[in-house]
Amino acid sequence: MKKKTERIYRTIGVFTTAAIVFSGCGTGQSRKEQDGKNLKIGISVYDQYDTFVSELVSNFQDYAKTREKDWGISITMDVENANKSQMIQNDQMDDFIKDGMDVVCINLVDRTDASTIIEKAQASDVPVIFFNRELVQEDLERWDKLYYVGADAFESGELQGDILVEKCKKDFNRIDKNGDGVLQYIMLEGEAGHNDSMVRTMSVINEITGSGYLVEKLSDEIANWNRDQAANKMKQFLERFGNRIEVVLANNDDMALGAVDALEAAGYDPDSQDWPMVLGIDGTTVGLNAVNDGKMLGTVLNDAAGQADGMLELARSITAGTKLPEEYELQDGKYIRMPYRIVTQENLGEIQMLLMKK
């Protein structure tokens, strides 16, 4: 018997009556028969506890409510949690197909193992929008109804490096606590083999050293994008290196915040000279709060709202043949990539105002 997958929540479109929506779901009504009046979207996330992914899905739901009125249709969403299991996610694809989804949005558990989902989608003629966790390019090119919405991981690492470089230009002595002219750092990485993790780890260091600064890696550890895991790793770093740590580079905000948790638990004060420069990536709400409080030097905004809106616009374009808005240009007929933005205390207010308008 197929293992029951974990459902996060189900959102039923409210523009039309519930009776019409349930009629479409219960009879296995085909996409062609629905004639564009009801857009059914299946969404599977690799882990519902990932802060960035959770915010992206929340934005997607909010935009769907607005678009129902703008487009005059009902939008039905089924959001599932794969619980970090590719096998569960593959089974969820079967459920989406059986339930007659018009398009499926997949946040891959394993970016190198998309074949099963692609084969199921192609056999049933169900378009797939992969998002946030970029699959291998060769897989995306296997069928003309496969797409990816996300951002350029290389750019995020570069911008994270730029934040530290600008701080070095203004106050190098504040960072270089031991006065040796070298930045001693530790790295908190996402998953082993994950594209964003590898690229961010490489590009941030290339940006710092390319700007003329010397660095020394004290240690690095994989913390799987997870705040608690990062806190445990940081505790070990502090026990081993103590005040030698001048910079903490984390592949995402959750891991940066895990480092902050460990620093605070060890009695470090964000206002003291002993507090290292902590940098994240994603621009989550909790990450922005930490920047505001001076606990993080900065983060790089990964536009969750823009990606969510781009996914929804793409889903509509695929199923109804509508033209995509200019801001969501489809690159190579496959990709929508949203730009990153640096966030520090200096421009935090501007960024927050921008996010409020979305």
From TrEMBL:
Name of this chain's protein: D-galactose/methyl-galactoside binding periplasmic protein MglB
Cellular compartments annotated: Cell envelope
Principal localisation: other
Xref: InterPro entries: Bact_Solute-Bind_Prot2, MglB-like_PBP1, Peripla_BP_I, SBP_2_dom
PANTHER family on file: D-GALACTOSE_METHYL-GALACTOSIDE BINDING PERIPLASMIC PROTEIN MGLB, D-XYLOSE-BINDING PERIPLASMIC PROTEIN
Species the sequence originates in: Blautia ammoniilytica
Gene3D superfamilies, per database record: 3.40.50.2300
Subunit record text: The ABC transporter complex is composed of one ATP-binding protein (MglA), two transmembrane proteins (MglC) and a solute-binding protein (MglB).
SUPFAM superfamilies per record: Periplasmic binding protein-like I
Coiled coil, from the record: none
Domain Periplasmic binding protein: 41-322
A UniProt-annotated Pfam family: Peripla_BP_4
Keywords: Calcium, Metal-binding, Periplasm, Signal, Sugar transport, Transport
